[in-house]
Amino acid sequence: MKAIICKAFGPLDDLEYGDLPEPEPGKGQILIAVEAAGVNYPDGLLVQGLYQMKPETPFTPGMEVAGTVEAVGEGVTGFKIGDRVAGKGGLGCYAEKVAMPASQCFVMPDGMDSADACALMVAYGTSHHALKQRANLQQNETLVVFGASGATGIAAVQIGKVVGARVIGVASSEEKRRLAKEAGADEVIGYDNLKDDVKQLTGGKGADVCYDVVGGDAFHAASRFMGRNGRLLVIGFAGGEIPKLPVNLTLVKEYSVVGVFWGNFTMHEPEVYADNMKELFGWYAEGKVKPLIEGRYPLSDAAKVLERVLGRGATGKIVLVP
Fold first, then answer.
1. pLDDT confidence of residue 90
2. Which SUPFAM superfamilies match (predicted)?
């Protein structure tokens, strides 16, 4: 089968589009014929050896997939050959076929688009966990979303509106701010005067929750515009800088800084994770959330697509199609 192969940590251009033996489902696994593999920011970090985990090389990147069950391993119940499923794994999804733990897979609702299903796994899964379990976002609170035109940002905007929050989307260009507004943001702003703009839009009160996938200067602004009892969510560092927190601000302003590591959550709280996905799939069926799919690209274009994602040039969700 065709797959993307990382033979050694290094530049994205070193990724190979080559042949690998077809996997066989082991105990507790299902074999999925891939319809779409989601592209995520951590995939590019992983290939370069810059992520929290470093798998043995060679490996095939890709952590989310949608497709059709081709075979069922020993001990698997609840899945049968021919089911259309979406799943999350650690690696292996940039391929024509992938064997994945059945416990990490869900049967897709009838008619669900495979690219939408991929978006619901990691992008929406991350934002949902961040806002529900980590921030405990409430109706009528103010949520500020950084990177509001990206896949996770659009998810956070839409989930914030489902909860009933007031959402301020932050994005770096007029076009990206337009997309955030179309996703449901009540107001959209840029990064140039971030602290003052949020303070002005909240009447000086500050944000109840800030969803930060950017880090760097944006985090520094957030550390100064948070409101009392606010929750500043640390999700990623797409801006390239891991910032330092002036902890005196958390003391005098009485807000919390909360880490969000969705992959850890899915491993340690699988039942809660399953409940989250059921809720997201239900919201999708009801039309309450709808991913923005920027594009579907050939599997062989993986390196080129990852370059765009890491360069913060992507909007919405991108998938690779074998």
1. 82
2. GroES-like, NAD(P)-binding Rossmann-fold domains
Domains in the chain, ordered, with CATH? 2-108+292-321 (3.90.180.10), 124-263 (3.40.50.720)
Question: Are the C-beta atoms of 98 and 88 separated by less than 8 Å?
Answer: no
CA angle 149, 154, 159 (to 5 degrees): 155
Position 239 confidence tier, pLDDT thresholds 50, 70, 90: confident
Strand ranges for the chain from DSSP E: 2-5, 16-19, 29-38, 64-72, 84-88, 97-101, 105-107, 142-146, 166-170, 187-189, 207-212, 226-234, 256-259, 293-298, 317-321
Residue 150 has, within 13 A of its CA and on its CB side, a CA count of 28
CB 145 within 8 A of CB 171: no
Average pLDDT (209-234) is 97
Calculate the average pLDDT of the chain: 95
Query: Is pLDDT of 238 > 90?
Result: no
- The predicted-structure confidence for 246-282, as pLDDT tens digits, reads as follows 999 999 999 999 999 998 999 999 999 999 999 999 9
**309: number of Cβ within 10 Å:** 21
- Average pLDDT, stretch 184-203? 98
Mean pLDDT of 36-48: 94
What would the two tokens of residue 174 be?
Answer: 């007029």
* Residue 97, both tokens: 């076929």
What is the b/e burial string over 242-257, where b = at least 16 CB atoms within 10 angstroms of the residue's CB? Answer: ebeeeeebbeebebeb
Residue 85 neighbours by CB under 8 Å, 6+ apart:
30, 32, 66, 67, 68, 69, 79, 105, 106, 107, 108
Chain mean position to CA 310: 13
